[in-house]
Amino acid sequence: MSPAPKAQLNILDLVPVLDGGTAGEAIASTVDIARHAEKWGYQRYWMAEHHNMRGVASSSTAVLIGHVADQTETIRVGAGGIMLPNHAPYVVAEQFGTLATIHPGRIDLGLGRAPGTDPFTTRALRRNEAAAMNFAGEVEELIGYLGDPDPDAKVRAIPGEGTHVPIWILGSSHGGAQVAAALGLPYSFASHFAPAALMSALEVYRSRFTPSTEPGGLDAPRSMAGVNVMVADTTAEAERLFTSVLQRFHGIVTGRRTGLPEPQGDIASLMGQWSPAERQAVSEMTRVSLVGTPDEVRDGLAGFVEATGVDEVIVTCGAHDHEDRLRSYELLADAWS
To answer: Which of the given ranges, 48-57, 124-133, 202-211, 256-265, has the highest pLDDT on average?
Structure first.
């Protein structure tokens, strides 16, 4: 085999609650995977903010990041991401400044501008709709709180100021790419569930990138993209395990969200039970997915890196059983190295 492209390998853990399982079990699984991922050479371990979802246990993302960082030693732990319009930038600065003070050099802060939930929960979060329209301004405000201490500032984040927590801009469209480019920040694209604008968003980011001299800013673009993976000893077994992921996406498409389902049969027989529109929607959402043996997934991932030019990839595995998820990440790490 040819050498893998030089792209950093990271994990995005959606902290899935199994169908019939508990949030406590999901969090315990996350901690165990993070500990193993650290040993296997993964560089970042990110979790994402979601609300009011029976199948996801990462709603209090900052708390969970602290818990995982407490249970690991060297791997970077972060948010992929915090949905900034749900929060006051000052509160996020205090939270992540505290995390960075406890775990110096290990905390990442990815920021998105979607609510990460439904309209009813958006209102329960007391989200300010105008905040999403001023996403760039709120990012700059947050960066200011985490920047060099200013004794004359009327409002200071303590802990927070001087920590310069690394900030990534997340997105699934051109909006986030434009913000990341304008502020000279790294950019991560959510191609693991919304791949349609992947290539055009990366082009927008790179073509409009403005170098930043601010702490945490970049002198050249740095990009990451998400990929669904399922790795097993045989292709047939990987495809069987991936039916859990397909069922989860089908639940999103049909509005019938549950915990992460058990695998069923194989991909063809599962998708044959759905309407043509449902099959098309699920296929489009999961287009950036690699399912197969270690060599197959490794080669697919290498091709993805070459085609997109990303500097890092962040993979997520939705296997139902904890041991299958662990095994998938281990096989990929071995193949990628």
So the answer is: 202-211
Q: Is the pLDDT of residue 5 over 60?
A: no
pLDDT at position 123 over 80: no
Does residue 1 have a pLDDT over 60?
no
How far lies 16's CA from each of 29, 30, 157, 330, in Å?
A: 9, 9, 32, 19
- Whether residue 24 has pLDDT greater than 70: yes
- Minimal CA–CA distance to 170: which of 107, 112, 89, 108? 112
Domains in the chain, ordered, with CATH? 8-336 (3.20.20.30)
Cα-trace Rg, the chain:
19
Beta strands in the chain (DSSP E): 8-13, 44-47, 76-83, 107-112, 167-171, 187-189, 223-231, 289-292, 312-316
- The DSSP line for 136-203 is HHHHHHHHHHHSS--TT-SS--TTBTB----EEEEESSHHHHHHHHHHT--EEE-TTT--TTHHHHHH
pLDDT averaged over the chain? 94
- Listed residue (63, 76, 61, 154) closest to 108, CA to CA: 76
**pLDDT tens-digit readout, 183-212:** 999 999 999 999 999 999 999 999 999 999
Structure-token pair, residue 168: 């990534």
The pTM is what?
A: 0.94
Phi, psi of 312 (to 5 degrees): -140, 150
Burial 300-313 (b: 16+ CB within 10 A, else e): bbbebbeebebbbb
CA dist 214 and 143 (Å) reads 9
